[in-house]
From TrEMBL, chains A, B:
CDD domains: AAT_like. Signal peptide: none annotated. InterPro entries: AspAT_Ic, PyrdxlP-dep_Trfase, PyrdxlP-dep_Trfase_major, PyrdxlP-dep_Trfase_small. Transmembrane segments: none annotated. The keyword Calcium does not apply. Keywords: Aminotransferase, DNA-binding, Transferase. Gene3D superfamilies: Aspartate Aminotransferase, domain 1, Type I PLP-dependent aspartate aminotransferase-like (Major domain). Coiled coil: none annotated. It comes from the Bacteria. SUPFAM superfamilies: PLP-dependent transferases. This is DNA-binding transcriptional regulator, MocR family, contains an aminotransferase domain. One of its GO terms (molecular function) is L-aspartate:2-oxoglutarate aminotransferase activity.
Length: 427, 427
C-alpha cells in the first residue's frame, strides 16, 4: 500500500473522490452505531447471570463470621470479600475496603476527603493549601479528568510512552512543585492505550521525591484481570514497592468487578496502607452505615477465588478478543502502510487507541457521526477535553455485535482516509 | 405508685437498698444485650427474602424502557423505580433521583456538594462563605449531627416540642443569621421522639423568611411508611407547601427502603424541585456512572406499588408493635407515677424516647452497661453528643427477641430508679 505522503495531489484527489462516493453510500444507510463507551456486550453479561441466583436460601445470607448480611453492620466489607480482593490485589485483608458498586465513587470520595480533611489526621485539607494540581498521563480516562475539573483541581498533562507515563517529566514536576498533590494512573492495559507500566516506571513512581508530602498516586487498576491473551501482561506491585521505599501511604489502589460481573451492580475495592485504610474508614463512617453486603456475598459465592475468577475472565476474553481482532484487521487492511494513522494492539483492557495525523481526530469523529457512527469525542482522552495534537480516538470494540462493529470501523477508516487526504492536500 | 419526690429520705434509702440487691443479682447473670441501634430483627428481614429471588430470568433484568439493567447507563434511577418512589412521596418522577443503598450517603453528598459547589449554579460554595451553621432540632438523629461535626458545620440545637421543632426559635434564628444554611428534620415518627410535625410546623418551615438565600431543609423522611398502628400519622407535603410559597428549591426530601427490605441492601431516594434534581444529577455524574439498577429492579418487582408496600409494612408492624408494647408496659409498670421519668408512645418509627430527671441519663446508661445492657450513649441524640439536660435515652426495641427485650428494659428501669433515688437523696 502506498504511503499517502508520497502520492501526488492528483492521485490523492482521485482517491478522495472514490472514498467520498463510498461515504455517501454508507451515509444514506442511516446507521445508528454507538461506540462511545467501554461497555460489555450482552453475551458477557450473560456469563454472570447465575450470580443473581446464589442467595436464595436463608443460610446463604450469612457471612463467614456469622453475621446476617441482610442487616446493618460492617463498614469496610464482609470478611470473605476482603479476603477475596486481597488475594487478587496481593495485599492483606487489613489493607482493603470493599465498597459499593463503583470504584469511580471511591476515587471521587477519596479526593473529596483530601480536599476537606487532608490526606491524614495530621495533614492540612487541600482546600486550605491554595491551588491543587494533579499530573495526568495523557491520553487517559476522561472520568478521572472530569473529577479534577469539577473539583477545581488543575490538571497538568504528562505524555504517555509505551512504558507508562514519561517518568522524567513526572519526577521533575513532582519534585519541583508542592502544589502537585497527585497523579492519575491506569497502570495495566491503560485506558485508552492498553499500556502496562514497566517495572521501572512502577519503581520510579513508588520511590520518587515529591515536593508535597501529601502526594498521592491514584492507581486505578481497573483492568487488572481483564486479559485478551493467554500471555497476559504482568504489573509490578506498587504498594509493596512504595512501602519498601518508605512511602507506604503514597498509593491508593482501586479496582472493581464492573467489567467482571455487572457494570453498575458490581463491587468496588480500595487497597492501600493500613493507616490510609483506617483514615478512609473513619471518613466513610460519616457518609455510610455500610456497603451492600448481600451483593458482596453474591460476588464471593460466584467468583469464589483467584482461579475461578481467572476462568471467568477467560470466558470474557473468548467473547471480546475476536472483536478486538476484527477492529485490528480492518484498521490494518484499510489504513496500514498509508502513513496516516497508527494504533495499539493491547493484551487486555477495553480499548484500542487510534492516532490520526495531527489535527485530524476531531474532523474524523464529526464525519463518522454524520454517517451514523458515534465515537467517543475527540479530545476526551485529554484533560479539559483538549488533545494538543488533535490526534487520539478511543475505540471501544466490546459492545456492538461483530457485524455492527465491522460497519462502524469501516466507516471510521473511510473517515480517517478522507480527512487525512484533505489534510495532505491543503497543508 | 408513690411519687418519689414525696418520699422521705429513709423511705428512698430503703427502696434503693432493695433495688441494689435486685441489680446485683441481674449483674451476676452477665447479660449481653445490645440495644444501641434501630435495627430490624430477623423475622422482619425474612419478610423480604423473596426479593432475592425475583431476578432469576433473563427477561427480569430489563427495565420497562427496554434497557439491560445489568449494563452501564441511567444515572438517576430506572424509570419504574422513579415512578414507584414518586408515588410514595407524592411528587412527579422528574422530581426524583433513585440512588444507591443509603439515603445517609445522599444527605452527606448533598452537603458536600453545597460546601464545594454551592446549592445551585449561581450560588457561592459554602466553604467560601465563612462559618456555616445548621439548626438541629434536638433530640435528633446522631448521624445527622455526625455529618455536621465532621464537615465543620456549627450546630445550633433547637428544642423539639410535641408538634415538631420549636418554630418560634427556628424562625427567629433563620431570619437573623445568614450563616445558618440549613436544618435537619426527621418530620415523621422522628428519631428518637416519634413525633410527626403538625401541618402548622410544616407550613412555617416552608414559608419562613431566611437570612440566607441558600438555606436548605434536609427533610429525612426515613419513617414515612413505618407505622405501628392502623391509624397512622399524616404528614403534610412540604415540597408542595414550599413551592406554593415561592420556595420550591428549599426542601431536599430523603427516604430509603433500609427498614422496608434490607438495611445496607436497600434503595435510597432524593425528592426535590426539578432544578435541585438537575443540579444534584450534574454533580452526581462526576461521582458515579449510575446506581445499582438490578437492586432497583428487585425492589420494584417485590414492592410493586403503594398498596403492596402498605401491606408489607403492616407485616413489619405485626412483628415490632408488640415489642414497643412490651417496652411501654414495663416502663409504665416500673416507672409510672414515680415522677422520675417520662417517655413517648409513638405511632410509628423505630424508637421510644425516655427522659429521666435532669442529670441522670449518663449514669443510667453506665449502670445498665455494667449489668450487660448496652444502650445508645446518653447525649448521642444531641449535637456534639451533649444533652444539656443529661436526660434523654433512646430505646430501640426492634432487634432483640421479646424475652431479651424484657430483661433489658427491666434492667433499664432498675437503673433509672437507682440513679433517680440517688439523685433525690443527694440534691
Amino acid at each position: 500500500m502506498a504511503n499517502y505522503h508520497n502520492l501526488s495531489n492528483e492521485a490523492l484527489q482521485e482517491k478522495y473522490n472514490t472514498l467520498q462516493d463510498a461515504y455517501e453510500k454508507i451515509a444514506s444507510q442511516q446507521l445508528q452505531l454507538d461506540m462511545t463507551r467501554g461497555k460489555p456486550c450482552t453475551e458477557q453479561l450473560d456469563l454472570s447471570q447465575p450470580m443473581l441466583d446464589v442467595l436464595t436460601s436463608a443460610s446463604a445470607v450469612k457471612t463467614e463470621n456469622g453475621l446476617d448480611a441482610r442487616n446493618y453492620g460492617i463498614l469496610d466489607g464482609i470478611p470473605e470479600a476482603k479476603a477475596f480482593f486481597a488475594s487478587i490485589l496481593d495485599v492483606s485483608p487489613e489493607q482493603v475496603i470493599v465498597g459499593g458498586n463503583s470504584s469511580l465513587t471511591m476515587m471521587h470520595d477519596s479526593i473529596v476527603q483530601f480536599l476537606l480533611h487532608g490526606v491524614s489526621e495530621d495533614a492540612a485539607p487541600w482546600v486550605k493549601q491554595g491551588n491543587v494540581k494533579f499530573l495526568c498521563p495523557s491520553p487517559g480516562y476522561d472520568r478521572h479528568f472530569a473529577i479534577c475539573e469539577a473539583l477545581g483541581i488543575e490538571m497538568i498533562p504528562v505524555a504517555m510512552t509505551p512504558e507508562g507515563p514519561n517518568m522524567d517529566e513526572v519526577e521533575k514536576l513532582a519534585a519541583a512543585d508542592p502544589q502537585i498533590k497527585g497523579i492519575w494512573c491506569v497502570p495495566k492495559y491503560s485506558n485508552p492505550d492498553g499500556i502496562t507500566y514497566t517495572d521501572n516506571v512502577v519503581d520510579r513512581l513508588a520511590t520518587m521525591k515529591t515536593a508535597a508530602d501529601d502526594f498521592r498516586i491514584f492507581w486505578d487498576n481497573a483492568y487488572t484481570v481483564h486479559h485478551l491473551t493467554d500471555e497476559p501482561d504482568e504489573l509490578k506491585d506498587i504498594i509493596t514497592a512504595a512501602s519498601k521505599a518508605g512511602n507506604s501511604d503514597r498509593v491508593l489502589q482501586f479496582a472493581s468487578t464492573s467489567k467482571v460481573t455487572f457494570p453498575g451492580s458490581g463491587v468496588s475495592v480500595l487497597a492501600s496502607s493500613e493507616s490510609n485504610i483506617a483514615f478512609y474508614k473513619k471518613n466513610l463512617s460519616i457518609q455510610s452505615i455500610g456497603p451492600d453486603k448481600l451483593n458482596q456475598l453474591r460476588h464471593v459465592a460466584f467468583l469464589k477465588d483467584k482461579a475461578t475468577l481467572a476462568d471467568h475472565m477467560k470466558k470474557h476474553a473468548a467473547i471480546i478478543a475476536p472483536k478486538f481482532q476484527t477492529v485490528l484487521s480492518i484498521l490494518n487492511e484499510k489504513l496500514g502502510g498509508k502513513g496516516i494513522a497508527d494504533w495499539t494492539n493491547p493484551n487486555g483492557g477495553y480499548f484500542i487507541s487510534l492516532n490520526t495525523m495531527e489535527g485530524c481526530a476531531k474532523q474524523v469523529v464529526e464525519l463518522a457521526k454524520k454517517a451514523g457512527v458515534t465515537l467517543t469525542s475527540a479530545g476526551a482522552t485529554y484533560p479539559y477535553g483538549k488533545d494538543p495534537y488533535d490526534a487520539n480516538i478511543r475505540i471501544a470494540p466490546t459492545l456492538p455485535p461483530i457485524q455492527d462493529l465491522k460497519k462502524a470501523i469501516d466507516v471510521l477508516c473511510l473517515c480517517v482516509e478522507m480527512v487525512s487526504i484533505n489534510h495532505l492536500l491543503h497543508k
